[in-house]
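May I ask you to comment on the folded chain given beneath this request?
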Amino acid sequence: MSSICIQYQSNSSDHPNPDRTVTADLHINYWKLPQTKGFERFLDFGLLIHNVSKDIVAVSFYLPVLVSQNHIHDLGKQVANGSMMSHLFNGNYKVSNVIKSNSFYTAECNEESKPSFLLYSFGKSFRVERMNVGSRIIIPLNSFPEETNLIKQKKEDSDSSVYGKLYIRFRVENVQDNDYGHIEPISNDFLQSAFSKMEMLNIHINEFREIPIDDSEDLQKEWNYFSFDKIHFYFIGSSEDEKVTGHKSFKDSRLLDPQKWSGYLESHNSKHKQCIAYHWKYIRDDKTGKMPSNFFIRTVYSSFQSLKVLKYCLIILLLGFLGSFLASYSYDLLKNNKTYNSILQNREIETLRDTLVDEIN
């Protein structure tokens, strides 16, 4: 499958600078929620930029599929509370509004191992550019607040042009089942294939060889690629996903509390099913500087296929009819066979003789 590309644009040069590296952490949630008929699929992206600076004017998410403007939704407001932020980052967070700003929040954690950062709710301030194969979602970063506790602290610690960490999160709706993978019947189990299907999901991140050729040149112009220190990938399904495996074992899994996540999911709540989250985590190797950048997942899930079940029932009825017809036809052939009739007559005579003997005795 083609690669997702995540980049930033700098106003310091009209061309990308290969010697400059901006690091970030990436969060991807692939949601597959059962509905009354079929499944609803959507993607959530979270990007935590390390040491975002004044000259970074925009970030870009290239998706190798066509998406429309109304299928992109900012999630900044949904996560702008301590409870939800604590769930996302697995820490004790306090989220506060930045004074004189409707778009920025400070997310602070008192645990040293957890990051504190600015949360940016960009709302409708983005655009979607249609490319030859895929689509590019561009989010401008040009309205940083003048003063916050995090910025003051960063200015005291280092270069005044650096703002610290910045987090954005948004959702891509209307994801189709073949956008990032494909579905196949279970070929090696005649019976199970009528009640289950196999879905294979393959997502690449910033893999140049997997970028569609028709879009690769345009992606190189004026944009730099982020270098990721960590990538968290969550596949969130339900109990209908009976077997979830990957090219690497998932790190952990957990049952999501529907009450805690209802505000975040809004109208996307699963119908009468509990959600199960499977978590994969990649960390950059300090020695080699390398990190895997693709996720392959295979899941077998319940899928009642009425046409296939009907076909099986018709086959069973046909086999029953053929069996009955063959039995009747074979009997008619035997009745017309002289040898069979002779044997049958001899058996009748022997039976009659035995009956007479019993009566005489």
